[in-house]
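sry for the spam today, last one i promise. struct tokens for design, 405 residues
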């Protein structure tokens, strides 16, 4: 059993063999992955050592003290937080060995092809079709592997699609089944013919989101994750991890958006009022409670896979971001109405703390939509966490093709 002492030894051996000051960044990241120090709870040969997730902090502390480069997790968050755990749980050995290493090093960026113009909050109503070219069965979980799937449809709100090499994709493979059951999960090569990415300009002026059109895109059956028709269950792994990745990201005390407004409060006594002080104190306490709840959630992950609790974290993350950014604009008064740059850009990441208060106010409006709308997450918390009665669902057992659209 590898313990903290042995992990420190392994990390020091990595640093000695590949000094950060003289080693190319990508070469160092590859060496770290091969040494099992990328995500230590993953299996050996896949960037880990099969040890508890909690020991990752030991490795990270040693590497940070040595000035070692990281893999820029904000830029590749979809790959790290959503694609990787899904591939680990449902992928074949060949898929894991081909995809996980360049995903972790950041050589290959990932995006998520889930939401559609007519299936956002009701994701299971998606209409993008995938049809087996060989004419074989498309609904049987016992269907033999082989052949290609031909995919046609449209996805929307796709972060990083303009940068991505790979996408996690869910598509309807059997319209004769109820909407949750006729879905299959694929890995889509974004460079394949028939994949078209168009920017969606947002209220911030940027186009970090995209719409993606899929026209006759051929996906080999070897890029299917999980069984045919079992895509909804596979997607739940992705979605649960997504909500933890968004709402439970580790940050220090006064990290994130609360740190920006707290800094302004200390530096600008001329802006202070009693009412603003009381509201800031309340939000500061809520932000700290949310941070500590995130710590507890990540500790629970050591013992298993994320569950519906992540929905509560993401729900609170969205509300707090919007309330904090609103208070920041109000605190700044006329200055809060200024905006630094309306230039149309296609950024590589979302930088909440690197821009001005106006950007934070506008961008945070999307927090209650992305990663699951707040309305959907409230239902998840009510039904799966609190155990309240489920809402009536009249379409649960109706074939997708017979649903009103």
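last one done:
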């Amino acid at each position: 059993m590898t313990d903290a002492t042995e992990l420190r030894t392994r990390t020091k051996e990595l640093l000695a063999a590949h000094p950060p000051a003289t080693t190319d960044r990508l070469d160092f990241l590859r060496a770290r992955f091969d040494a099992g120090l990328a995500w230590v709870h993953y299996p050996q040969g896949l960037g880990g050592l099969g040890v508890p997730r909690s020991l990752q902090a030991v490795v990270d502390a040693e590497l940070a003290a040595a000035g070692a480069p990281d893999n820029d997790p904000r830029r590749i968050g979809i790959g790290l937080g959503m694609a990787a755990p899904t591939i680990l749980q449902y992928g074949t050995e060949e898929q894991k060995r081909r995809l996980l290493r360049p995903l972790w090093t950041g050589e290959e960026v990932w995006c998520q092809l889930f939401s559609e113009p007519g299936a956002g909050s009701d994701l299971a109503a998606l209409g993008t079709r995938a049809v087996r070219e060989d004419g074989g069965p498309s609904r049987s979980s016992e269907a033999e592997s082989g052949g290609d799937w031909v995919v046609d449809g449209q996805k929307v709100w796709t972060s990083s699609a303009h940068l991505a090499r790979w996408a996690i994709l869910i598509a309807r493979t059997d319209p004769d089944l109820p909407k949750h059951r006729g879905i299959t999960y694929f890995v889509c090569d974004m460079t394949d013919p028939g994949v078209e990415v168009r920017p969606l300009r947002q209220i911030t002026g940027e186009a970090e989101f995209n719409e993606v059109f899929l026209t006759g895109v051929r996906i080999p059956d070897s890029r299917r994750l999980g069984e045919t028709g079992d895509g909804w269950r596979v997607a739940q792994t992705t979605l649960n991890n997504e909500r933890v990745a968004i709402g439970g990201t580790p940050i220090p005390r006064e990290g994130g958006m609360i740190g920006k407004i707290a800094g302004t409060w200390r530096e600008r006594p001329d802006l202070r009022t009693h009412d603003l002080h009381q509201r800031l104190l309340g939000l500061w306490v809520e932000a700290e409670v949310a941070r500590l709840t995130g710590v507890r959630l990540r500790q629970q992950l050591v013992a298993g896979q994320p569950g519906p609790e992540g929905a509560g974290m993401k729900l609170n993350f969205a509300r707090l971001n919007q309330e904090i950014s609103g208070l920041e604009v109000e605190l700044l008064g006329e200055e809060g109405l200024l905006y630094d740059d309306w230039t149309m850009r296609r950024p590589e990441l979302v930088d909440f703390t690197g821009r001005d208060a106006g950007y934070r106010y506008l961008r945070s409006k999307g927090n209650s939509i992305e990663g699951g709308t707040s309305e959907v997450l409230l239902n998840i918390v009510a039904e799966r966490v609190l155990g309240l009665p489920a809402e009536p669902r009249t379409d649960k057992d109706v074939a997708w093709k017979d649903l009103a659209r």
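The beta strands are 110-113, 129-132, 148-155, 166-172, 183-189, 195-200, 209-220, 224-225. ok im logging off now
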